[in-house]
Amino acid sequence: MVSLIVHAVLGVAVVVWIMRSNPTIFRRTATGPTLSTLEVVYLVVGLVSVGLGWYFNITFVMDYGPDQLFFNPLWGDGSWAQYLELMYDNPAAGSAGADFSVANVVLLPLITIIDGRRRGIARPWLFFVTTLFASFTFGWAFYLLTVERQRRLSGTVGDAHDAADGADVGSAVGS
Question: Model confidence over 25-48: pLDDT tens digits?
Answer without folding.
Answer: 999 888 888 889 999 999 999 999
